[in-house]
UniProtKB/TrEMBL annotation:
Spans through the membrane: none
SUPFAM superfamilies linked: Thioredoxin-like
Encoding gene, per UniProt annotation: LOC103630274
Alphabetical list of InterPro entries matching this protein: Glutaredoxin, Thioredoxin-like_sf
CDD domains reported in the protein's UniProt record: GRX_GRX_like
Protein name as annotated: Glutaredoxin family protein
Organism taxonomic ancestry: Eukaryota, Viridiplantae, Streptophyta, Embryophyta, Tracheophyta
Residue stretches making up the Glutaredoxin domain: 94-159
Biased composition (Polar residues): 14-30
Top-level lineage group: Eukaryota
Residue segments, region Disordered: 14-38
Length: 239
C-alpha cells in the first residue's frame, strides 16, 4: 500500500510543503503618512496611471489640487510652529480656558484650574477663547485637533493636561513642584484691564465697525478682534 501511494505521488507531480510563517515587516514612517502629503502623492500616481487625451486634460486639475494641498500643509505647519512659540519659555505658564457658562462642566473645570493656579500665586497667561477666536486657533494647532477640550494648561511649552489631570497633580503636590520656577503673580490685577487682558478698541470704540470716507459706508475694523477688543498692552505685551 505504501509503494502504491509513492507511485501516485510521483505521477501526480505535486510537492507538498509544510506551512511557513513570514515575519511581519515594519516600515519607518515617511512623508506619505501625513494625510495631506499622502493625498498629494495619490493624486500624482493617479495622473501617471492615465493615458491618452483624457489623462492629459486632467493633469492641470490634479496639479492644482496638489499645489493647494501642499500650501495647506505648509500653512498648518507654520501655524503649529507659531502656536508652539507662543507657549514656549521655561517659566511661562499658559492656560486656555473659557469664561462662557454655556456648558456647565466645562465652565466649572476652567474655574477650578484658575482657582488652583491663583492659590499657588504664579503668573498665568490666561487665554480666554471666548474673548478671541485666535486663541482657539492656537490651541487647535497645538493639540492637532479641531475641537480640543477646555481647559488646557501648558508649562514651559509642555502640556500638563485638562482640569482632571491638573487637579490630580495638585492633590499629589506635583503641580507645586512643576510651577516652582514660574514667575510669581503680581500683588494686584492690571490697572488698565482689571485682569481681563482685553480693552475696547480705540479705533472703533469696540463696535468692530469703522466709517470709510472712500466708500461712504462702514467697514470691518481691522485693528480689533471679532468682539471689538484688543489685547491690553500693559499686561499682554509678552503674549
Amino acid at each position: 500500500m505504501w509503494l502504491s501511494w509513492v507511485r501516485r505521488s510521483k505521477t501526480s507531480g505535486r510537492l507538498t510543503q509544510s506551512p511557513s510563517f513570514s515575519a511581519p515587516t515594519v516600515s519607518s514612517p515617511t512623508g506619505k503618512d501625513h494625510p495631506g502629503i499622502g493625498a498629494v502623492l495619490d493624486d500624482d500616481a493617479a495622473v501617471g496611471s492615465g493615458d491618452g487625451a483624457g489623462a492629459g486634460s486632467k493633469i492641470v486639475l490634479h496639479r492644482a489640487r496638489s499645489a493647494s494641498r501642499l500650501r495647506a500643509c505648509k500653512s498648518f505647519a507654520a501655524a503649529a510652529e507659531a502656536a508652539a512659540a507662543s507657549v514656549a519659555g521655561e517659566r511661562h505658564v499658559v492656560l486656555y480656558f473659557t469664561s462662557l457658562h454655556a456648558v456647565r462642566a466645562t465652565f466649572e473645570g476652567c474655574l477650578t484650574v484658575r482657582t488652583i493656579l491663583r492659590g499657588l500665586r504664579v503668573s498665568v497667561d490666561e487665554r480666554d477663547v471666548s474673548m478671541d477666536a485666535a486663541y482657539l486657533a492656537e490651541l487647535c494647532a497645538l493639540m492637532r485637533r479641531d475641537r480640543p477640550s477646555l481647559p488646557q494648561l501648558f508649562v514651559g511649552g509642555r502640556l500638563l493636561g485638562d482640569a482632571e489631570e491638573v487637579l490630580l497633580l495638585h492633590e499629589s503636590g506635583e503641580l507645586r513642584r512643576v510651577l516652582a520656577s514660574a514667575v510669581q503673580a503680581a500683588p494686584a490685577p492690571c490697572a488698565s484691564c482689571g485682569g481681563s487682558r482685553f480693552v475696547p478698541c480705540g479705533a472703533c470704540c469696540g463696535s468692530h465697525r469703522r466709517f470709510s470716507d472712500k466708500t461712504g459706508g462702514f467697514r470691518v475694523c481691522t485693528s480689533c478682534n471679532e468682539n471689538g477688543l484688543v489685547r491690553c498692552a500693559a499686561c499682554s505685551s509678552g503674549s
